[in-house]
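Researcher: Please predict.
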Amino acid sequence: MHTIIGAGLAGCEAAWQLASHQLPVTLYEMKPEKFSPAHQSPLLAELVCSNSLRSDAPDHAAGQLKREMEACGSLIMRAARQTALPAGSALAVDRQAFAEQITAAITGHPLITLVRREVASLPAERPLIIASGPLTSAPLARELAALVGRQLHFYDATAPIIAAESIDMNKCFRANRWQADGGDYLNCPLNREEYYRLVEAIAAGDVARRREFEDEKVFEGCMPVEAMVARGPDTLAFGPLKPVGLTDPRTGRQPYAVVQLRPENREATMFNLVGFQTRLTFGWQEKVIRLIPGLEKAVIYRYGTMHRNTFIDAPRILDRNFQHRQQPGLFFAGQLSGVEGYLESAASGLIVGRQLALQHYRGAPAPLPPATALGSLGTHVTNTHSKNFQPMNVNFGLFPPLEQKMKKAARKAAYCARANAELAAWLEANRL
């Protein structure tokens, strides 16, 4: 018997994958016995924020992930297609009909036993999948904290991440502070006028609404840029944008201020804006970022966020199959595992369900190719290069770089063509 805690998108997808391969499942869901601060419906797979599953474009990483999930028989994608609403190039769903379809599929499957009660302590049975979500209840969160130690986080405080290929390297320079040569950081120098224009834009920015159950005081140790600007226009210049120890090789002088970019992965296909955690709306973040010299055409892979989101420090805990490194048979899925978003949460549940089925029938899991959208999520949760692991949506920056340089449209098409070929080969080699 396989046990799953949490009947959100990840838990339902994992249960469906297991049951579809003739493996019995016990699925625990605390609703309607108990609701999180954000949930209201007793239905499974409730969408509590947006009703969008992001882009459905064939040349978009999220669109590619959808097609890979469909190739693997995803319940979530089947329900999404059947309850889709007009949304341009995005896939949006009628959230009530979507949850109803998934609830009916799960409760109607003869191999899935749905138990509606809160799990306050971890059961001893293995395999066990923990998919309790970003709003995991307090008793279970305490259990998880004891399991993973300080590597359980209760809030996101993320800075934006930029595609390396979209940075104008002619306006940046590589250097660490007080190092004459090289350096791990990219530095975007600002003169006095550019700095105060940036500060004015941050000060005027729209801030994302804080949800009622989120406590603002938890962010004092990781202050958003707009809060720093509110303390005075020079605060950033003496904080994360301080230029001390850096010399612009183009002028031979210290800049007025510097925005530093740090590689987010070993391949350096993504860069993190150091110290730019923020609550600014996504649209306003784009305006602000494009005022930074060298980032005028920035492609943003992840926007800055600050919100409640319980998740584990996955690179220190999980392997590519989302299994605990020290406890075989214990898996994490959904946003708790360190992926971001509805789609990616469902995909992680699919991966775990598939790997457990392979382990049952073939004796061992078979990690998905890193060049696939599904496999790239495994790359993300095992990214030990990142000093401050944070949840992330699927994006092409998580894929292995292409050998050839090509224009943007051709590059996206090449990523998808390679992913499709590798997934097809993996499915053929791992038939069940």
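Model: Residues 212-221 have pLDDT under 50 and may be disordered.
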